[in-house]
């Protein structure tokens, strides 16, 4: 998916951001808020954002003040300033006429989007992932340092292998948040996602968020996932569920303004997370292509030859259906099974090629219905007349040029 590097004004200087865009016009816009002391480039943030873009949703993810590539001093920030950064991000998108309809927050970022949602008129749906029901939950991460922070006003704390200066104003700020009241007044569709095995933010937090919210609301268990969603499959599962869930609250995507009698352009681009994985856009439709693991791929989608066989099989079945309906045949169902391989030319009696290897496609067709022998024979002959079959047997000229 195309990714743009961006910067926009935050509470203490510029905030560093990435905009993950789908191929073609986005079906919706989303804003992703990362976890406490994390960044926009964490495994969860990057994978979920790219996977949502794969589903047609544009996602802006950014570093909060003092983190990642953003300006400012983290020690001066708190939960309230994170919310202000979120609002700044929305203003930035709004100026580009792309205000987010979807807010996604991971961990403390989930609490932040719950708090910020009522300040964003365009927001229609909120998704939290492993979020605490109270920002004060992060206090336990500071362990025995809390008393010293309270007494001395600040102290360095080791979090996720890095040292951060935490000041008393941070503790004061998270202590005065009334998140449950804000959740109750959310007035947006809410999806709560949480792992029962989360040992950073206990799943009881998900129950408290869900109970505080009014309908429409949903809960999805991320069984087996860790808090940071470090497993690629978990992050991609979250993205698929989110894209399916939000579709109920967003306008239906159009077909890109293409007339019914005009051919649709197929656009293929590298997905970015695998060696051979590809994103495929066909009008409003999204597919993925890849190579099997045995050929160095991740097997995240059909291979190019799989897609070729799919084209031939679909065309064959459609052609038989059109013929049967036109002739009034009692064809109840068609099933086409295909396989591709290469054979030596000398082993092919009816091939024009006499040396080397030739491609062979084996096509088996099951015809279900009350059909006479001659009708079945005729249908098999018609299968060879499907347009894709004819294309594969005709002279094909492929023009290749560099796209500007």
How would you sum up the global shape?
elongated
Q: Write the H/E string, N to C.
A: EEEHEHEHEHEEHHEHEHEEEHEEHH
Instruction: Tell me the strand order in the biggest sheet.
Output: 1-2-4-3-5-6-9-10
Query: Count the strands?
Result: 15
Structure, described:
It is built from eleven helices and 15 strands. Helix content is 31%, strand content 25%. It is elongated and about 90 Å long. The longest helix is centred in the C-terminal third of the chain and has 24 residues, at 304-327. The strands form four sheets. The protein has an eight-stranded mixed sheet, with helices on both faces. The protein has a three-stranded antiparallel sheet with strand order 11-12-13, with no helix packed on it. With 404 residues, the protein is α/β, with parallel strands linked by helices. The protein has two domains: 3-249, Rossmann fold; 304-393, 2-Layer Sandwich (GMP Synthetase, Chain A, domain 3), CATH 3.30.300.
């Amino acid at each position: 998916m195309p990714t743009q590097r961006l910067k926009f004004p935050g509470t203490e200087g510029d905030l560093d951001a990435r905009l993950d865009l789908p191929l073609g016009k986005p079906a919706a816009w989303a804003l992703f808020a990362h976890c406490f002391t994390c960044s926009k480039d964490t495994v969860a943030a990057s994978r979920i954002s790219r996977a949502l873009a794969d589903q047609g949703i544009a996602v802006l993810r950014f570093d909060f003040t003092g983190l990642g590539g953003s300006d400012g001093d983290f020690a001066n920030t708190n939960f309230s300033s994170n919310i202000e950064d979120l609002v700044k991000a929305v203003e930035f998108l709004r100026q580009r006429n792309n205000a987010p309809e979807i807010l996604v927050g991971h961990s403390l970022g989930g609490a932040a989007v719950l708090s910020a949602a009522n300040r964003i008129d365009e927001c229609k749906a909120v998704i939290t992932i492993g979020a605490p029901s109270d920002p004060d939950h992060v206090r336990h991460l500071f362990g025995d340092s809390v008393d010293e922070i309270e007494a001395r006003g600040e102290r360095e704390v080791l979090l996720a292998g890095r040292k951060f200066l935490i000041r008393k104003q941070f503790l004061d700020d998270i202590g005065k948040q009334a998140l449950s009241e804000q959740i109750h007044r959310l007035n947006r569709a809410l999806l709560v996602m949480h792992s029962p095995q989360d040992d950073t933010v206990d799943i009881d937090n998900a129950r408290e968020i869900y109970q505080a919210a009014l309908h429409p609301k949903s809960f999805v268990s991320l069984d087996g996932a860790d808090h940071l969603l470090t497993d690629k499959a978990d992050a991609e599962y979250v993205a698929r569920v989110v894209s399916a869930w939000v579709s109920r609250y967003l306008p239906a995507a159009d077909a890109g303004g293409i007339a019914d009698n005009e051919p649709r352009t197929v656009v293929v681009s590298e997905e970015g997370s695998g060696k051979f994985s590809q994103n495929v856009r066909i009008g409003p439709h999204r597919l993925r292509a890849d190579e099997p693991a045995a050929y160095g791929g991740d097997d995240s989608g059909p291979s190019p030859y799989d897609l070729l066989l799919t084209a031939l099989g679909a065309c064959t079945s459609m052609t038989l259906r059109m013929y049967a309906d036109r002739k009034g045949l009692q064809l109840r169902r068609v099933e086409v099974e295909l396989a591709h391989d290469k054979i030596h030319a000398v082993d092919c009696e009816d091939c024009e090629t006499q040396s080397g290897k030739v491609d062979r496609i084996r096509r088996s067709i099951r015809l279900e219905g009350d059909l006479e022998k001659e009708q079945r024979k005729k249908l098999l002959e018609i299968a060879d007349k499907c347009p894709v079959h004819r294309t594969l047997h005709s002279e094909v000229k492929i023009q290749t040029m560099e796209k500007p």
